[in-house]
Design a protein that fits this description.
Layout lengths: L1 E2 L1 E4 L1 H5 L9 H14 L3 E5 L5 H13 L4 E7 L2 H11 L5 E8 L2 H8 L3 H16 L5 E6 L6 H13 L4 E6 L6 H14 L7 E6 L6 H10 L4 E4 L13 H10 L1 H4 L1 E2 L7 H12 L20 H9 L27 H10 L6 H15 L7 H18 L5 E8 L6 E9 L2 E9 L2 H13 L4 E10 L8 E9 L2 E9 L2 H22 L12 E3 L3
Parallel strand pairs: 1-10, 2-3, 2-9, 3-4, 4-5, 5-6, 6-7, 7-8, 8-9, 14-17
Antiparallel strand pairs: 11-12, 12-13, 14-15, 15-16
Helix pairs in contact: 2-3, 2-12, 3-4, 6-7, 8-9, 9-10, 15-16, 17-18
Length: about 525
């Protein structure tokens, strides 16, 4: 079967979408999972965007050895120089050069004539070629470009040394029939097209990103640009899990395959959702909680008789565990470590030690630990280490007084740098009271309160509660997570971790060094 390359841009296009920013260690964690999934290309970022972006691209290039690593660059020498500096240590470095080619973008964004764009595209592909042989070129907003001009630009890029030509549906405007016809037209009518790999990069503004990407593949594209969970600008990108499983499930129709280890899909999806503080919608294809659930009596009867009646793929094929082994307080470190390996987690001795310590704490509060609990403990401890390394406040203890006829009161004791500080506050409910007490101690800058999510990890009244809090300040989102059988404790820890990340950002950029003004927490709706 012909091979379709999977180009993952979670760390560039996905990460730049609002509320989805990641720190360096989180990006490395995602990159390592992508490597383990066997994606072909990782777009690690836009190196020139900021010093932080440059550092993350370079660090990923240093650490990832089984995938091509690329950085995006505009058609500008400085962009290309910076991209090369960031990726040059990669096992297989690539520079991804782009310029807009639609009349709308050329006139209003670039303020260049078509001939100027054509000249610049060729010159900058040639410039990038002096650094490495692996050059990708993208005519931005290709699906709204004039077809004849688009073909001229593609031909120029090929002539000047591009080895991959990506056709982006930048604003999710096209339809499957149009995308297939466009790829077929370019491949059949551009000189040198037979010598390059064609790619598609589709956005989901009209809900057709995966369909358009598959149509592009059927038209002859042999690379798909996508993201874990479909993250990306506006409505997102082609979802990696959807396009990969579509190609795999319908090999009878496509005659194609990818090199993706699909059993890593569930793990990759959950890791990314955990990092950005979100959960999969219940009906999200492939990775949603209901993707393999059957409640209808007719469906249940069919599945019991033969799973293929209502399941076109198995949960095991995407890494969803259906044999939920239960561990308990008498389970040893080896048993926990072995089960984590079976679930796809590869931990260092130090990481396993941290997780086993947390496992024992949870065992004292909860009789049986399911695989879902174990996964939550691992992802939470990893996330907590990233957050705790940024310093800041930790919960010492709290005491709550609340009822349905009195105002909630909370006393909180926080520890920082060995010093403990207490305060008490009222609130409209216990969580508001706790957060008011925290604000009185921490005195953070004004921030919006964008996300507060609570969800149970498993079944039963003693389940672990997983709380995600996201605050926004300085046009950036700061996410914290808390995990506990006590939902108040989880809520407090989640808020503290979000504030600690915000304070760390302030210190790094010299903001609010006095820290003397109590915060104003603004609800997301305000």
């Amino acid at each position: 079967m012909e091979h379709v390359r999977i180009f993952d841009t979670t760390l560039r296009d996905g990460e730049q979408s609002p509320g989805c920013s990641m720190n360096l260690k989180e990006k490395i964690e995602v990159a390592k999972i992508l490597e383990k999934m066997k994606v072909d290309i990782i777009e690690a970022g836009f190196a020139i965007a900021s010093p932080g972006d440059f550092e993350s691209v370079r660090t990923i290039a240093d650490n990832i050895k089984e995938c091509t690593v690329t950085s995006l660059a505009r058609c500008a020498e400085k962009d290309i120089d910076t991209a090369w500096e960031a990726v040059k240590t990669a096992a297989d470095p690539r520079i991804h050069v782009f310029i807009a080619t639609s009349p709308l973008h050329m006139e209003y964004k670039l303020k260049l004539s078509p001939e100027q764009v054509l000249e610049k595209a060729g010159a900058m592909v040639s410039y990038a070629k002096k650094y490495c042989s692996n050059i990708e070129f993208s005519p931005e907003d290709a699906t709204r470009s004039e077809p004849e001009f688009l073909k001229r630009v593609v031909a120029k890029a090929i002539e000047c040394g591009a080895t991959t030509i990506n056709i982006p549906d930048t604003v999710g405007y096209t339809t499957p029939d149009e995308m297939r016809a466009l790829i077929e037209d370019i491949k059949g009518n551009v000189k040198g097209a037979e010598d390059v790999i064609f790619s598609v990069h589709c956005h989901n503004d009209l809900g057709m990103a995966t369909a358009n990407a598959l149509a592009g593949v059927l038209g002859g594209a042999r690379q798909v640009e996508c993201t874990i969970n479909g993250l990306g600008e506006r409505a997102g990108n082609t979802s990696l899990e959807e396009i990969v499983m579509a190609i795999r499930t319908r090999q009878d129709m496509t005659g194609l395959s990818t090199g993706i280890d699909t059993t890593m899909i569930h793990r990759a999806s959950k890791t990314v959702y955990d990092i950005i503080g979100q959960t999969a919608p219940l009906n999200k294809p492939i990775v949603g909680k209901n993707a393999f659930a059957h409640e209808s009596g007719i469906h249940q009867h069919g599945v019991l008789a033969n799973k293929k009646t209502y399941e076109i793929m198995t949960p095991e094929s995407v890494g969803v565990n259906v044999n939920n082994l239960v561990l308990g307080k008498h389970s040893g470190r080896h048993a926990v470590g072995q089960r984590l390996e079976e679930l796809g987690f590869v931990l260092t001795k130090e990481e396993l030690d941290r997780c086993f310590e947390e496992f024992k704490i949870v065992c004292d509060k909860k009789k049986n630990i399911t695989d879902a609990d174990l996964e939550a403990i691992v992802t939470h401890k990893t996330n907590a280490v990233y957050q705790d390394e940024e310093g800041g406040y930790k919960l010492d203890w709290f005491q709550m007084s609340t009822s349905n006829f009195t105002t909630a009161t909370c006393t909180v004791s926080l520890e920082k740098d060995g010093e403990k500080v207490e305060d008490v506050a009222l609130g409209d409910g216990p969580i508001d009271a706790a957060y008011n007490a925290i604000d009185a101690i921490v005195k953070p800058s004004e921030h919006s309160f964008d996300i507060f999510n609570i969800h149970s990890i498993s079944e039963g009244k003693d389940t672990l509660g997983d709380v995600t809090v996201q605050v926004n300040a300085y046009d950036r989102s700061f996410t914290g997570r808390g995990l506990s059988t006590d939902i108040m404790e989880a809520s407090i820890n989640a808020y503290l971790k979000a504030l600690n990340r915000m304070i760390s950002y302030e210190k790094k950029h010299g903001i609010n060094e006095g820290g003397e003004s109590p915060a104003k927490r603004i609800s997301a709706k305000d």
